[in-house]
UniProtKB/TrEMBL annotation:
Cleaved signal peptide residues: 1-17
Protein's recorded name: Lipase
Subcellular compartments: Lysosome lumen
GO MF annotations in UniProt: hydrolase activity, acting on ester bonds
Active site (record annotation): S162 (nucleophile), D336 (charge relay system), H368 (charge relay system)
Cross-referenced InterPro entries: AB_hydrolase_fold, AB_hydrolase_lipase, Lipase_euk
GO biological process, one term: lipid catabolic process
Organism: Strongyloides stercoralis
Annotated coiled-coil segments of the chain: none
Pfam families recorded: Abhydro_lipase
Major subcellular site: other
Top-level taxon in the UniProt lineage: Eukaryota
Length: 397
């Protein structure tokens, strides 16, 4: 993986010039632009140490207490850097910090910035035995509780992208009290089911699932590290006419969609220097499972006995999103491969309670990654969210 990333760094530096942020940590990236940065850890009930990155206030602003909190949660194969990878005027985290918010950026277990556990060896199979179910069960509790404890707030505004929406939909569906901590839920490129998925994940699912022995032979049973020949297969299957060929050598773009007409091309080295962030093979298998089952369901242990042991039933339980009870705002794109419009129309919209669905915004020519990196996102996504939050705050005074 290090060789692969080094090659990509050489390629992007050759094409666009060396950007110092390519090799920076999230804290360094935030401070590079003149913002205050903190690394705060939250420990889950099962011992995973999650690193969150906090921007207490905007550039040049005073450090006032009791600011409302905006919590941003990244997607699949991503990290907190997603929200700070563009220029400050284009990056969600900086925009909200400058607007007067206490901004927190989460990192789920197993990604680049949350590879630690108080009880398990990072190199052990046990450490990597998780999927997004555990993010629902443990990670959200740990991160949100720590954020509220440190900030002194009783609730927060949650902005999720991709898998960051999937875990929140799922959490709210099984924990009716969690909504007391979520003032509003903004779902960007929302995921419930992936029955109509396109691109690299569809290819992976058809190629590898449900032959898990084959998956483990190819990918192992720990950290998800796509090897060169697998990347090449996906490249040929997905990238017939890539606008930037090097981006088609990156697993994230192969899964989310490489074609975009609104990326800041000068920032591509920064995007690729920080993505993909790691996850577990088991998490990727869970996603492949959902492609096949076409359901929003828990991890399938592929054995009635094992499922019975974990769930008390022979099949994995469903997450019932009709029970989601927090005010929810959907922002989705008509060109999204991962959060496909058909899944939104056939799963999320019919099943979310109309009383909590406060906005349903379809954006033209938005793909999965445009919500975090697209040049239209500040005006068409972040500004409307910001206005909604400011209106909510004014009404609560």
């Amino acid at each position: 993986m290090k060789t692969y990333l080094f090659f990509m760094l050489l390629l992007t530096c050759y094409c666009w010039g060396d950007d110092p942020e390519v090799n920076m940590s999230p804290i360094e990236m935030i401070e590079y632009w003149g913002y205050p940065a903190e690394d705060i850890t939250a420990t889950t009930e099962d011992g995973y140490v999650l690193h969150m990155h906090r921007i207490r206030h905007g550039k040049g602003q005073s450090d006032e207490k009791n600011k409302p909190v905006v919590f941003m949660q990244h997607g699949l194969l991503c990290s907190s850097t997603n929200w700070i990878a563009n220029l400050p005027s284009q990056s969600a985290a900086f925009i909200f910090a400058d607007a007067g918010f206490d901004v927190w950026l989460g990192n789920v277990r197993g990604n680049t910035y949350s590879i630690d556990n108080n009880h398990l060896d990072t190199n052990s199979k046990e450490f990597w035995a998780f999927s997004w179910d555990e993010m629902v069960k443990y990670d959200l509790d740990a991160m949100i509780n720590k954020t509220l404890e440190v900030s002194g707030q009783k609730d927060l505004y949650y902005i999720g992208h991709s898998q960051g929406t999937l875990i929140m939909f799922s959490k709210l569906s099984i924990d009716p009290y969690f909504k007391n901590k979520i003032r509003k839920f903004f779902a960007l490129a929302p995921i419930g089911t992936v029955a109509h998925i396109k691109g690299g994940m569809e290819v992976l699912a058809k190629l590898l699932y449900p032959e898990i022995g084959f998956v483990e032979a190819i990918l192992g049973d720990k950290k998800f590290l796509p090897n060169n020949w697998l990347i090449e297969i996906l490249n040929k299957a997905v990238c017939e006419n890539p606008f930037i060929h090097s981006m088609c050598d990156n697993i994230l773009f192969l899964i989310a969609g490489p074609e975009s007409k609104q990326l800041n091309k000068s920032r591509v080295p920064v995007y690729m220097g920080h993505t993909p962030a790691s996850t577990s093979v088991q998490n990727m298998v869970h996603w492949m499972q959902m492609v096949h089952s076409k359901k929003q369901e828990m991890y399938d242990y592929r054995s009635e006995e094992e499922n019975q042991k974990h769930y008390g039933q022979s099949t994995p339980p469903l997450y019932d999103i009709t029970k989601v009870n927090a005010d929810t705002y959907l922002y989705w794109g008509d060109s999204d491969w991962l959060g496909d419009p058909e899944d939104i129309k056939m799963h999320l919209l019919p099943n979310l309670d109309p009383s909590i669905l406060k906005a349903n915004v379809e954006l033209k020519n938005f793909n999965h990654l445009d919500f975090i990196w697209g040049l239209r996102a500040p005006q068409e996504v972040y500004d409307p969210i910001l206005n909604t939050i400011l209106e909510d705050l004014s009404q609560s005074k």
